[in-house]
Amino acid sequence: MTEFSGSGASVVAIDNKIEQAMDLVKSHLMYAVREEVEVLKEQIKELIEKNSQLEQENNLLKTLASPEQLAQFQAQLQTGSPPATTQSQGTTQPPAQPASQGSGSTA
């Protein structure tokens, strides 16, 4: 009979160890989840701020654009063509060509 009480005690000890290990895993997971929630809250806050800035910029651009520009933009949206093509031709294309030629000759 002492063998049963000894093995019963070891089973209880093992159960206690398992429970402690599970509690430790649970606390680590909860800590990791809380950390991730804080990161996500910060990202949401930054995205809300960025969205607000973009909405203000959009409203400003709408007020500054001529009716013809707005109509052209709406037409581009409906056809699916990229709206930034007219801007990129005027500003980014000429500087980009000499820069690519310069980087090609140095490399």
TrEMBL record:
One family name in Pfam for this protein: TSC22
Coiled-coil spans in chain: 30-64
Highest taxon of the lineage: Eukaryota
Keyword Transcription regulation: yes
UniProt entry tagged with the keyword Coiled coil: yes
Entry's localization field: Cytoplasm; Nucleus
Record region (Disordered): 72-107
Family, per entry: Belongs to the TSC-22/Dip/Bun family.
Annotated protein name in UniProt: TSC22 domain family protein 1
Organism: Mesocricetus auratus
Upper taxonomic lineage: Eukaryota, Metazoa, Chordata, Craniata, Vertebrata
Gene: Tsc22d1
